[in-house]
Amino acid sequence: MAIERVSVPTVWPVEPLKEIIRELLVLIGEDPDREGLQRTPERVARMFAELTEGYRTDPQILVNDALFEVAYDEMVVVRDIEFYSLCEHHLLPFFGKAHVAYIPNGRVLGLSKIPRIVEMFARRLQVQERMTEEIAAFLEDLLHPQGVAVVIEAAHMCAMMRGIKKAHARMVTSAMRGAFKSNLQTRNEFLNLIGYAHVP
Is residue 39 one of the residues assigned to a domain? Predict the structure, then answer.
């Protein structure tokens, strides 16, 4: 199966980013030469490299032959996967937990790979809705399971520290595929396992 890889530069542009951050510091009224800020441009450039490493993750290497033929057709759930991402609208963090489930159709994925898949999509400039769909679509294409379900709950700093300034607001998104979409009992079992109330 061909897994698409996003085309990005192989060498992270630290030096150009350092200059941009230095200019930003000047524009907001700071002195980038003062002691506390002298290394800030380099730190920020390297921070962005880390927080966007999902663009440079090769899905083939990530999966790394961790697909196994197993005669198991009950629900597999990995819950409470912590993640940190950057909102593409303000470049502010949003963070929370992802809950992922699938019903195998002859093969299963190694346990550590599901959190790594979440991490791959989180480490990009994102909106939560798209990230939820991307994780579900990736697993569906990879496993061809009977169904896939993804629920993400996150706090968004763009809504907490600016704008409406609602510190306790949380956003919940879901993507249901296959049996999770067509079968209410299956969907409710998943929601119950991750601590959400049954759908009426």
Answer: yes
198: annotated active-site residue: no
Q: Are residues 84 and 28 in the same domain?
A: no
Give the whole-angstrom CA distance, residue 140 versus residue 143. Answer: 6
Same domain (yes/no): 47, 69: no
**What residues make up the domain containing 148?**
65-193
Q: Catalytic residue, from 90, 133, 140, 153: name it.
A: 90
The pair of three-digit structure tokens given for residue 37, joined into one six-digit string: 């800020």
88 is catalytic: yes
If one counts the domains in the chain, the total is 2
Confidence of residue 147 (pLDDT cuts 50, 70, 90): very high
Same domain, 145 and 47: no
- Residue among 156, 170, 181 at smallest CA distance from 101: 181
Q: Is 87 an active-site residue?
A: yes
d(CA 121, CA 97): 13
pLDDT > 60? residue 105: yes
CA 87, CA 126: separation in Å to the nearest integer? 5
Looking at the structure, do residues 76 and 33 belong to the same domain, yes or no?
no
36 and 116 co-located in one domain = no
Average pLDDT for the chain: 92
Q: Which of 158, 168, 185, 198 is catalytic?
A: 158
Q: What is the 3-class SS of 8-33, one letter each residue?
A: CCCCCCHHHHHHHHHHHHHHCCCCCC
Q: List the one residue out of 94, 93, 140 whose CA is nearest residue 117.
A: 140
